[in-house]
Specification:
Blueprint lengths: L8 H10 L9 H27 L6 H10 L17
Helix pairs in contact: 2-3
Length: 87
Amino acid sequence: MENIDNISKPSITRLARQAGIKSLSEDCFETVRNLIDEKLNEVIKTIIVVNSEHQTKTIMVSDVYKGLQLLNYNVAESSYLNTKNKS
């Protein structure tokens, strides 16, 4: 992924704080960027395979959930994601 350097240090720090990490050394940022790149590529490839089973060009929310499930990520589906504007 060519834009992996666009993930800023403050963004990585915020993610680390949410995970309970208090501080990061300077050399951690590049390692975290590389891990994000690897995992994101793995997830996207799996989602594309799931989507190709439906023979559509549009990736749907259900494709993402199924791809994450195939990679053993425990993500709960929410009916609130399918809300429509009621105006």
